[in-house]
């Protein structure tokens, strides 16, 4: 009879059923491997934010620029072009072509310069421009939920990001071949569906391999790429004046990302761990350690946070554990995460109404459109920088409260200002300061929301919060059309109410990212005794 056992270097007999990691650990003289969480392994052995995390973060966050491009392209494609008079029967002093005699005027850039001029979205049909915008954000809301679930399940973070980037390129190019308004509206809805999952998947993939002490700053830095994408869009739109050529040109970056960047990205080791792919997660962690100039001993093994303190012997562990399943239903089933989810949804909704609403008001400066969009994008960057610098000093909770209240107070001041003369300039300043405050909040909420939920349901919860943000984006234009001081008053209420709701959330500064629902529930249950 053949011998089925394996001899170790020390002459011991080891069963072939023992996991290879355990065999190496025994061969190196360890009695049994040390089980650590992802955060512990990054902190002690691999490095929390070394060269590997830096390059991975930069490459992954490029997808945020794509979201900025595909979201804001409507500003240029759906703009109302300038017109010029052809006959004396045309009044050149009016600001709209409504009421002018047909044939007495023409579009300055030609009929095909924008969707408004080509599809006749003027006068009584002007509402259709807002309809396209609302349906795009409705698509974003649906896509955020769908791809949030898919990235938590079998597709993974990288797989979901690859699919949405491919869809962005396809739908962007198809938009350019729209034959009528309703075809254009349908394809923009589909574009919103893919765009809604882009930033979500990129954010989680970029930040999950980052250590606890650097995660907040790294997460908040993703929005620089979003603003840079908007600024880049202004340059693209300047050179491609026709809306059809603009959609094709704005889709090229998505194609480049799929071909030149995504093949070189790694899957999230956290996702591999919670899906039971321990070997793949350990392989990525060894790559991280090697790239960062660190050493990961063979006697250290990744484990879920709920398993680190288990008394089960690792000698009997199989190569792939059963993956813990998590969904939005699991979030709603547990009172702790259900309460957090409801608060995150409401806060993200209020923030989105203010952010997008104030952004729409800012375009009414009466200057060059391309310059306006660029300045709006650049103006948000100081808010991102300041928020990132104080994030780990003040904490997530107080920073979220004060940035929302900062925006709400200036919106309230804007609502009390008159809309003419010098007061009109003061109101504009109040709007700019309101955007400044809410841009910091919008950035912070991604980091804060991510840290409120365990890995197994993180993308599903983030997807739900993102859906709430998209609902706020859908409703923001309806608030803006009310005119006068009413929009500022609504934005003030949303900002102040959002800050009050944040007060009921826990502080997540220097808290670990939990892997499972059970691990988070156990740790949170121990907090009162620890504090006492």
UniProtKB/TrEMBL annotation:
Q: Which organism is it from?
A: Capsicum baccatum
User: Is Transmembrane helix given among the entry's keywords?
Assistant: yes
Q: Does the keyword Transmembrane apply?
A: yes
Top-level taxon: Eukaryota
For membrane topology, the record states:
Multi-pass membrane protein
Protein name according to UniProt: Organic cation/carnitine transporter 4
Which family, according to UniProt?
Belongs to the major facilitator superfamily. Phosphate:H(+) symporter (TC 2.A.1.9) family.
Q: Which GO terms describe its cellular component?
A: membrane
Q: Where is the Major facilitator superfamily (MFS) profile domain?
A: 56-510
The family database entries (PANTHER family) matched by this protein are listed as: SOLUTE CARRIER FAMILY 22 MEMBER
What lineage does the source organism belong to?
A: Eukaryota, Viridiplantae, Streptophyta, Embryophyta, Tracheophyta
Please give one Gene Ontology molecular function term for this protein: transmembrane transporter activity
Q: Where in the cell is it found?
A: Membrane
User: Which reaction does this chain catalyze?
Assistant: phosphate(in) + H(+)(in) = phosphate(out) + H(+)(out)
Q: Which InterPro entries match?
A: MFS_dom, MFS_sugar_transport-like, MFS_trans_sf, Sugar_transporter_CS
Instruction: Name the UniProt key words of this record, in alphabetical order.
Output: Membrane, Transmembrane, Transmembrane helix, Transport
- Segments spanning the bilayer are 129-148, 160-179, 185-205, 217-240, 246-265, 339-358, 370-392, 399-419, 425-448, 486-505
């Amino acid at each position: 009879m053949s011998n089925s056992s394996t001899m170790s270097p020390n002459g011991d007999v080891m069963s072939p059923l023992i996991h290879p990691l355990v065999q190496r650990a025994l061969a190196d003289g360890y009695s049994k491997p040390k089980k650590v969480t992802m955060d512990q392994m990054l902190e002690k052995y691999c490095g929390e934010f070394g060269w590997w995390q830096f390059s991975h973060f930069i490459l992954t966050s490029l997808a945020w620029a794509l979201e900025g491009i595909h979201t804001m392209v409507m500003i240029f494609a759906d703009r109302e072009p300038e017109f010029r008079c052809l006959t004396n029967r045309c009044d050149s002093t009016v600001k709209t072509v409504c009421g002018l005699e047909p044939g007495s005027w023409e579009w300055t850039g030609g009929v095909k310069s924008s969707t408004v001029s080509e599809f006749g979205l003027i006068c009584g049909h002007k509402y259709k421009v807002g309809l396209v915008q609302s349906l795009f954000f409705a698509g974003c809301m649906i896509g955020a939920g769908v791809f949030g679930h898919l990235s938590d399940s079998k597709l993974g973070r990288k797989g979901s990001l690859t699919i949405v980037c491919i869809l962005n390129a396809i739908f962007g190019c198809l938009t350019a071949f729209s034959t009528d308004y309703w075809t254009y509206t349908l394809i923009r809805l589909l574009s919103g569906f893919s765009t809604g999952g882009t930033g979500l998947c990129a954010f989680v993939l970029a930040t999950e391999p980052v250590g606890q002490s650097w995660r907040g700053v790294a997460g908040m830095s993703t929005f620089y790429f979003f603003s840079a994408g908007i600024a880049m869009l202004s340059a693209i739109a300047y050179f491609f004046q026709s809306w059809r050529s603009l959609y094709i040109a704005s889709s090229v970056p998505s194609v480049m990302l799929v071909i030149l960047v995504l093949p070189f990205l790694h899957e999230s080791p956290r996702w591999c761990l919670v899906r039971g792919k321990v070997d793949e997660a350990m392989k990525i962690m060894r790559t991280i350690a090697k790239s960062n100039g660190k050493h990961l001993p063979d006697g250290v093994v990744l484990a879920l946070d709920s398993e680190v303190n288990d008394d089960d012997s690792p000698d009997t562990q199989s190569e792939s554990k059963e993956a813990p399943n998590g969904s939005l239903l699991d979030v709603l089933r547990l009172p702790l995460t259900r309460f957090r989810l409801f608060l995150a949804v409401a806060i993200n909704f209020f923030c989105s109404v203010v952010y997008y609403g104030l952004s729409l008001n800012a375009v009414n400066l009466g200057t060059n459109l391309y310059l306006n969009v660029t300045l709006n994008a650049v103006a948000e960057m100081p808010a991102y920088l300041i928020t990132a610098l104080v994030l780990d000093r003040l904490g997530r909770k107080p920073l979220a409260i004060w940035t929302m209240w900062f925006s709400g107070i200036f919106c309230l001041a804007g609502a009390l200002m008159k809309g003419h003369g010098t007061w009109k300039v003061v109101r504009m300043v109040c709007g700019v300061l309101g955007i400044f405050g809410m841009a910091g909040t919008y950035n912070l909420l991604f980091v804060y929301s991510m840290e409120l939920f365990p890995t197994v349901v993180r993308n599903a919860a983030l997807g739900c919060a993102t859906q709430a943000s998209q609902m706020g984006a859908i409703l923001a234009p309806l608030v803006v059309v009310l005119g006068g001081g009413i929009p500022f008053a609504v934005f003030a209420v949303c900002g102040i109410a959002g800050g009050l709701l944040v007060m009921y959330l826990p502080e997540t500064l220097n808290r670990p990212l939990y892997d499972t629902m059970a691990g988070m529930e156990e740790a949170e249950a121990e907090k009162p005794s620890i504090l006492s």
